[in-house]
Write a structure and sequence with these properties.
5-stranded mixed β-sheet, 50% helix, 12% strand, disordered N terminus, disordered C terminus
């Protein structure tokens, strides 16, 4: 029984420790590389921090091509230990250094991203062998690179927030889900762009240097009109990003998506809305005409105020309460298009300008009753 348990434990341990990354030394390098199948080789040093960060990703890369061991190699060399002579032979001066070797053993440097998707995509492109990685969902943030950066970030008709990141950067990884949500929040805003660039990819480094990117993540705001680029120094929370972009882009987006409670509201008409509900008869009709005249110069958002006033003028004050409940129900379900949700949110916001007045009146009545109670006692 003890022997069986020992064998079982040994088998489990072997399964856990097995690696699909081939360890190369001067003794086996030539038998693995340049013998009819290509491969990616990492030259690393055990003490190197960047190598330690890459290690789990590189193990996943080996697993991703484990089904194709006869067609492509994923390997590594301890270039500061047993494989030091190999590092010298192939001009390795920093760690980690990644090199691609073709079927004949000819090498070329790998300068792409160090995330799993970038590495796997590179091997697939070079070898024609597909990985077993399930494709991730497309990013919500607009991805920039050397080919499209200037066209997007320097577009004088758009405001653009850019995170300059590196795939191996821990802070960048922590920021990613937050930043992706911000990109979702602002997706309806075509002129307020949330974008990202892998600033550690070799082709993109010139652009990163141009804007003084020396650490990751670095976040910069590129305002429309060719104005001076601004460094974002605020908190890295969804709330802070949304507030920053609303202020700088002139938008009214809410945390979690949709519009905030100020969208569609017009201060001048808010004032008239509150006066309107407090008035009656000819006074109410006069305020309605005043609002109608004012709305002609305020654009499409003003029409919602006019519609509510027309309903109330026609003795349908219950419309405010019923319509508020109806719109709130639609907004809570979120089953329609984002554009339609924005329209309904603006209508609901306008209705709240009238509801606010009714709430204030109710509070005044309560306070009046409370104030009379001691005297009556």
């Amino acid at each position: 029984m003890k022997l069986s348990l020992s064998l079982l434990f040994a088998g489990l341990l072997a399964g856990v420790s097995a690696s699909n990354v081939v360890e190369l030394t001067p003794d086996n390098f030539d038998s693995e590389i340049g013998k009819g199948k290509p491969g990616l080789v990492e030259f690393f040093a055990p003490w190197c921090g960047h190598c330690k960060s890459l290690a789990p990703v590189y193990e996943q890369l080996g697993d991703a091509f484990a089904h194709a061991k006869g067609k492509v190699v994923v390997a590594k060399v301890d270039a500061d230990g047993a494989g030091k002579s190999l590092g010298q032979k192939y001009g390795v001066t920093g760690y980690p250094t990644l090199k691609w070797f073709d079927e004949q053993g000819n090498s070329e440097p790998y300068d792409g991203g160090r995330d799993l998707d970038a590495l796997a995509s590179f091997i697939t492109t070079k070898s024609g062998v597909k990985s077993n990685i399930k494709p991730p969902p497309p990013p919500e943030a607009l991805i920039l690179d050397v080919h499209n950066f200037d066209d997007v970030a320097l577009d004088e008709t758009k405001d653009v927030l850019v995170t300059f990141t590196a795939p191996w950067c821990g802070h960048c990884k922590n920021l990613k889900p937050i930043y992706e949500q911000v990109a979702i929040d602002f997706k309806p805003e075509s002129n307020c762009v949330v974008a990202n660039m892998d600033a550690d990819a070799q082709p993109n480094k010139e652009i990163a240097g141009r804007y003084g990117v020396s650490s990751y993540p670095t976040i910069k705001f590129f305002p429309r009109g060719g104005k001076e680029v601004e460094a974002y120094e605020g908190p890295r929370t969804e709330q802070a990003f949304v507030a920053f972009l609303n202020e700088h882009c002139g938008t009214q987006r809410a945390i979690g998506g949709g519009l905030n409670d100020e969208a569609g509201r017009i201060a001048e008409l808010d004032t008239l809305a509150q006066k309107f509900l407090g008035a009656a008869g000819d006074a109410r009709a006069y305020i309605y005409k005043e609002a109608l005249t004012l709305s002609e110069s305020l654009g499409g958002a003003a029409k919602h105020y006019i519609r509510v006033m027309e309903k109330v003028v026609n003795d349908q004050e219950s419309y405010i309460e019923k319509e508020s409940k109806r719109l709130a129900s639609i907004l809570s379900k979120r089953t329609i298009s984002p554009a339609k949700l924005d329209e309904i949110k603006m209508k609901a916001n306008v209705l709240s300008a009238f509801v606010t007045k009714k709430i204030e009146e109710a509070q005044e009545k309560v306070e009046s009753v409370i104030g009379r109670a001691p005297a009556e006692l």
